[in-house]
Amino acid sequence: MTEVVIAGIGQVPVGEHYNASLRGLALDAIELALRDAGGLRPDILYVANMLAPVISGQAHLGALIADFGGLVGIEAATIEAGGASGGAALRMGYLAIKAGQANAALVVGVEKITDQLGAGSEASQMLNVDSDYEAVQGMTPISQAAMLMRRYQYEYNPPRAAFGGFARVAHANAVSNPHAMYRSALSAEAYDQASVVSDPLNMFDVAPAADGAAAVLLARRDLLPQATHPLVRISGSSQASGRLALHDREDILDLEPARVSVERACRQAAIRPGEVDLFELYDSSSILAVLSLEAAGFAPHGQGWRLAQDGQLGLDGLLPISTFGGLKARGNPGGATGLYQAVEAALQLRGEAGKNQVPDAHRALIQCLGGPAANAVTHVLERT
Questions:
Q1: Containing domain of residue 24, as a range?
Q2: Which residue, 138, 277, 295, 358, has fewest beta-carbon neighbours within 10 Å?
């Protein structure tokens, strides 16, 4: 059976790249990934992006980036699945190799949120909710997350301050990540005193939208007989979808696609979720971090918030999360997020995470979500 490994990785710092172009950011990440792979060249390209047609006025990114990157002639396409775009593109590259349609697949995620500011940027985020029944009423992803958090508080009555543990873990890990947007620790007092963004969410409950690009070169294992760095393989991959609008769901606090995709990916990898050494989850809001932990089976419904109370989620804890800052402190580069997760998990499993290293990391779970898990993509990565 074909073994798919991560041959090369590359990322640029997440932030506000006003003077960079989409193609320029993507090429920077691609060049780093190809160099890391020792010159191995891809025969297929997938570009993950969420908002370029609206924010940057540019579609057809597959052809654009293949051309700009000196890869004219290879198969190239753009993959869009909301916030899960990066994971979906990674899965497409994985499947292309598993199916024998490619020997090496280059997957790059890129986003330029700062091509628009203010109301235009805010309006673009509304593309990820149901246009006919949610966006038309003024709902945004942030207000959607606020509804989830308020319902969670009503159902389970957790202490309001409990949600701050997720932001504090993310910010603590971002301090030593040179690619993170916010490299400063967060105190419990600062969290408690933060201004409200959308009641009950405060500014530290929400990840900042940002620019960025990250790339991964996938390849058949037999193409790398003498790799220059430890190899990481994809041992499980799954994508699941659900209802887009909250009002169409039987239980808005049950992220069923997230749960299903974890179950399928772990079954494929022949492991249980509890056997992973770290979990790069989709913490675009603190409530989604809680619900993702519960969906993945790390806590019962209504109890996920407790994991952030006693150090279990730190780098030396039982289940390290957001090990380089997550979306919350590294920043949320839209469609590129899933590729940043893959790069960060690969660094952990290679033992190259520096001050962010999870001790003896052998296996990682990564998951990105489109909307509040209307689409969920999960991968299991393992050190070979």
A1: 4-118+208-383
A2: 138
